[in-house]
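Researcher: Final request for today, and then I'll write up notes for the group meeting. The sequence and the SMILES for flavin-adenine dinucleotide follow.
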Amino acid sequence: MKNTVSNRILLVGDSACQVKPFSGGGIIYGLTASEYCATTCVKALKESRFDSNFLKKEYDKKWKEKLEKSIRRGLLYRKILDKFSDKQLNFLFSSGKILKLTRILESWDMDLLMD
Ligand SMILES: Cc1cc2nc3c(=O)[nH]c(=O)nc-3n(C[C@H](O)[C@H](O)[C@H](O)COP(=O)(O)OP(=O)(O)OC[C@H]3O[C@@H](n4cnc5c(N)ncnc54)[C@H](O)[C@@H]3O)c2cc1C
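Model: Predicted protein-flavin-adenine dinucleotide complex:
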């Protein structure tokens, strides 16, 4: 999402599209962003700043620094996998076992999509 804040408003979780594009899972991304959201709320109350500029700098920018790359990577994988039929995917994964691709996949962080 281009922007997840407005004056006096912060979006978190599904409403902010903090969701893994290839699985639809939003627990990890939503909880990760909610820490930034909570910290920002405390800071906003302390400094009496509820304007979108402040919320963007403190929340929108920071959660994206942590999750944007993973979401973009997930979108790319999703686009690639969507091109395959179920039959082709089954073949790909059964070949993966033979080619030991599963070992590579197992070493990945499947939430942030990094090794
Ligand atoms: C069947 C299913 C299986 C899933 N499995 C997984 C999984 O295995 N792993 C994973 O990571 N994610 C999974 N997800 C996704 C995950 O559940 C969501 O990403 C996550 O719950 C989003 O949390 P949230 O707090 O943003 O939204 P929600 O959990 O949807 O919370 C929003 C809350 O707002 C309330 N609400 C809505 N409108 C209003 C209103 N007008 N006023 C007051 N309250 C309102 C709703 O009742 C709800 O309680 C699954 C989703 C579904 C549907």
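Model: The pocket of flavin-adenine dinucleotide is lined by residues 13-15, 19, 24-28, 30 (CB under 6 Å). The helical segments are 27-47, 52-81, 86-98, 101-106.
Researcher: Thanks, that's everything.
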